[in-house]
Amino acid sequence: MEQTQKLTPPANAKRIYRWSDLPGATEQAIYRVHEDGQDPREVVVSRHQRQVLEGLMQSPIYAASYCRISDQVLPLRRDHGINIECEMYSNDPETGRQRYGIYFLQSCVERVSDLEAAA
Fold first, then answer.
1. Closest-CA residue to 95 (of 65, 73, 69)
2. Which of 37, 63, 80, 116 gives the lowest tally of CB atoms within 10 Å of its CB?
3. Is residue 92 within 8 Å of 100, Cβ to Cβ?
4. Distance in angstroms (rounded) separating the CA atoms of residues 88 and 101
5. Residue pair 91/6 in contact by the 8 Å Cβ criterion
6. 28: number of Cβ within 10 Å
7. Beta carbons within 8 Å of 87's beta carbon, 6+ residues apart
8. What's the mean pLDDT in 14-42?
9. Which residues sit opposite 108 in a β-bridge?
């Protein structure tokens, strides 16, 4: 199946130049993931994965970044079963790339609570 390239990304898609461009919390937190036709499940996420997940909960994120966002998206998908899709677009005026992707959070995800560090 051929993937169609779109010309204009959503206006709220965010470029990530450094980790501080994402939400700052990195401690372990519990998230509830809802998927159509499945019971909700809880996952524990921390560090850069948490920053990327919370960033995606706010808006789509450009896949190409200086922080290697894809290195955090893969385990969110594979290890936690969170549905994150990458849609392809053409002609990025900022970078000159002919083809680029934007990550979209497809799962319904909500933060349940932060986990307290062991004392």
1. 65
2. 37
3. yes
4. 4
5. no
6. 15
7. 6, 101, 102, 104
8. 95
9. 34
Query: Which residues lie below 8 Å from residue 118, measured CB to CB, with a gap of 6+?
Result: none
- Helix/strand/coil for 114: strand
Three-class DSSP category at 100: strand
Does position 40 have pLDDT exceeding 80, yes or no? Answer: yes
Whole-number pLDDT of residue 64: 84
Q: Which residues are CB-contacts of 1 (< 8 A; sequence separation ≥ 6)? A: none
Beta strands in the chain (DSSP E): 29-34, 41-45, 61-62, 84-90, 99-105, 108-114
User: CB of 63 within 8 A of CB of 102?
Assistant: yes
Contact (Cβ atoms closer than 8 angstroms) between residue 88 and residue 2 = no
β-strand partners of 105: 84
